[in-house]
Amino acid sequence: MILIASTIKLIAEIALMALLGRWLLGLLAGSKKDNNLFYQILHIVVRPFISLARLLTPSLVLDRHVPLGAFLMLVFVWFGATLFKIQLCVQLGVEQCK
After folding, report:
1. Are 46 and 16 in contact (CB under 8 A)?
2. Which string of DSSP letters, residue by residue, matches 40-83?
């Protein structure tokens, strides 16, 4: 179970960092962001999470706000996985949790 909690937490961390990097690179690159190779790579990494957020959000949420919704959902998943991992570590003991 610790492996599952750690895996979910790791996936959420990677997706959160990719979303944050995509946002920052979009700010730096401006209107030329679609031609930027690194922006395209980050977009490929976060596309499944943004698509899932689009499915879960109501249709009145604008498409440009969906990445923010995906970011917030991933933050909640990360917190949930972290709390679950802490709970497991308390139950099993810190030595077995490493």
Report:
1. no
2. HHHHHHHHHHHHHHHHHS-TTS-GGGHHHHHHHHHHHHHHHHHH
Tokens of 44: 């490929």
Residue in this structure with the two tokens 């960092």, named with its chain if needed: 17
Convert the pLDDT of each residue in 62-94 to its tens digit: 999 999 999 999 999 999 999 999 999 999 887
pLDDT (tens digit, 9 = 90+) per residue, 16-70?
Answer: 999 999 999 999 988 888 898 999 999 999 999 999 999 999 989 899 999 999 9
pTM score, whole prediction: 0.87
Q: Which helix (H) or strand (E) holds 11?
A: helix 2-29
Say how far apart CA 77 and CA 12 lie, in whole Å: 7
